[in-house]
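Notes from hallway chat w/ T.B., transcribed later so I don't forget. T.B. wanted the structure written out for a chain they're using in a teaching module, and asked if we could keep both sequence and structure tokens in one place. Agreed to drop them here.
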Amino acid sequence: MSFIFYDLETSGLSAQWDVPLQAALIHTDANLNTQAELSFRARLPAHIVPSPGALLVTGVTPAMLEQAPLSVGDMLGLINRAFTEWAPSTIVTYNGLRFDEEVLRHAFFTHLLPPYSTQGPGLKRADLLVMLRAVRLLEPNAVTIPIAASGKPSMKLGDICRANGITLHEDDAHDALADTRATLALFRHLREVAPKTIALMLENAHKSGPAALLAGDEPILLGGMTAMVPVIGIAPSPRNAAAWAVADLSLDPASYLDSPAEERGAADHEGAAADPVGQDQRPADPLWMGEWGAYPASRSPRRRGLPPARAPGPRSRRLPQEPAAGACQPVCRCRPIALARGDAV
């Protein structure tokens, strides 16, 4: 399957009200050889007031806003056409499922285009930032994570690229085409240094991947920014098929299985979430893992809290009655994978 890499530069940070002003898309084959490269600029619509901060970050001048060759509607039509013509493909962005996808969805809707164009026939979606977090957690020696001036790890695209020998000059950052090329280069690098993790992540670029994991009988891993916790799916939400109730297996289920929900939430679980039974939404960009035996056992996860869950539906099942000894040992029996929000992944 081929890949589509894309990035947007927008008039601001509100997906509901701002619009894309620049877009770049790169279509590659399965071996990441570039097949096509597109770059567009659009004029600022008269009813949109751009964010000064966004213009300073992207370097867009008032003259560029007025003299761009395309209207926003024309540019969106070309983007939609590219997604349609390049399918089947996996769409890869960098933090795009949380922002770029939302901007596109609202912009497509307001311009009478299919709002879920990126989820059309033959298309999958993956977020390279989520993949990077998976590599950082599972194969920390495979990638260099730079430290920002604040003393915290920086996951900014430019910082990550420069720390790993990928050219993305500071002046080029936040240019849609430069960022898209950098995303492709970083994806190529991660696929070389951590092929197992990236391959497993791509298996969940469609929501059917995590759905199958949650419906299975084996424990899986739910990962966040810096930690992973073993969980098992209990039941899908009766109101939202994309949401599942899951149970935290870093705690002994015997300690809470027979407790009422209100007592479960009030119990002291040694720093765990308020309720060890929580809800996770498959298209919300968590990190899912199976096949944990393929990775060193020393990469044991630390727990991470989950939000409160709705009551399980009639298809709920019992949790394992005799978990392996030790808070996090069930992970050693898991299979590692992942999901990009939208999924996605």
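Follow-up for T.B.: The two ends are 16 Å apart (CA to CA). Might be a good example for the class.
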